Amino acid sequence: MPSIDDSKTVLVTGATAGIGRALALAISDLPSHPRVIATGRRKDRLEELRKSKLETIEVNLDTDKNELKKFVDDVLQKYPDLDTVILCAGIQHEFTLTGPIDIDKVTSEININYTSVVTLISLFMPHFTKLATQGQPCFIVPVTSGLGITPGPPVPNYSATKAALHNFTISLRVQLQGTNIHVLEIIPPLVESELHDAEGTTEALSKFWMSLDEYIPLTMNGLRKGDREISAGGSLAALQKFEPGKIEMAEAFQKARAAW
């Protein structure tokens, strides 16, 4: 089974904090020594990663398709052997739906967590298709959330974006069956992260979250085994309770559609 150990060049979005940063560093330490490109918005964090021997690119994914295309074109020009993207960038806002909500925050959350991810996958796809047909395994790895399976009412829009990305990922995997492009999905539980700083909930959530030191080895194990769904903690429990048969039903739908 192809796995992250087969990757030569890995791009990680959202790599300046939390899960993205920890994964970028862990992947760079693999025995296969892949080249790791860390991307994010914060220049100081990118400089720290450069000192850790990672390559870095500054990018803000809360933008339009033209800017994302320029980003992808620049990446592929510099890294023509890129074979793996791990899509970690995300933002989370709390909303009380009984009163007025900030639609700009809603739009930004949808763009970063879902629209930009789908756009990047679409833009990288021709490149991956070419590499895959030449015999190089390629990997697309969206990072979703257990809240995409069982929503968290305080973060309704975040939960909805992750549910959308989770279902998109299943469809992508089914459509790419039989190719050398492999779709793995990372489905974290509540994990140590700065994601919650903007809402001021970090202190409260830190009493319940899984530490990065515990979470990252579990996730790296799944990536190295090539597991199609990589989860842990409460998210794994939700996946096992509510998702059995979902991928098989999607595969059946795809076969039925081909026969129409």
Automatic annotation (TrEMBL):
Tell me the superkingdom of the source.
Eukaryota
Q: Which InterPro entries match?
A: NAD(P)-bd_dom_sf, Sc_DH/Rdtase_CS, SDR_fam
List, alphabetically, the SUPFAM superfamilies matched. Answer: NAD(P)-binding Rossmann-fold domains (SSF51735)
Alphabetically list the UniProt keywords. Answer: NADP, Oxidoreductase
Q: Where are the transmembrane segments?
A: none
Do you know which PROSITE patterns this protein is assigned to? ADH_SHORT
Q: Could you state a single Gene Ontology molecular function term?
A: oxidoreductase activity
What does the sequence similarity comment in the record state about its family? Belongs to the short-chain dehydrogenases/reductases (SDR) family.
Q: What is the recorded name of this protein? A: NAD(P)-binding protein
Annotated source species: Collybia nuda
